[in-house]
Amino acid sequence: MTTQQTVFDSSHLPRSLELDDWEILEDFYGTFLQQLDTLLLHIESAPPPMTMDEQRHHAHKLGSSCRTVGAPALASLFESLETLCRDAANAETREQLLADIVILAKTTRERVASHLAAGA
């Protein structure tokens, strides 16, 4: 992850959708938070760990969601994980990246949830 990437840009989603209807935006953010929570629970749960295919699936799905809501730093980590899975990287390398994802996902989650709670 580069330090220059934004954790969360609250103006990205309304700008990209050319939309200022808070109810619709709220739905996008809420869905994103649910997806992120599901993944965090899956990653942090007791063994067995996710398979490489599961990691790739979640990385692809959440990478796109991150880009949509304006979380490019986390999107980049998910893209890296998807690439590692596609290239069949060893489990240790993927686990190290997953640990970084968890840290950034929690920060991103806090920022999106705070924005959502503020009601725009």
From TrEMBL:
PROSITE patterns listed in its UniProt record: HPT (PS50894)
Residue stretches making up the HPt domain: 21-119
Taxonomy, superkingdom: Bacteria
One MF annotation (Gene Ontology) recorded for this entry: protein kinase activity
BP term (GO), one: phosphorelay signal transduction system
Protein name stated in the entry: Hpt domain-containing protein
Keywords from the UniProt entry: Phosphoprotein, Two-component regulatory system
Residue numbers bearing the Phosphohistidine modification: H60
SUPFAM superfamilies tied to this protein: Histidine-containing phosphotransfer domain, HPT domain
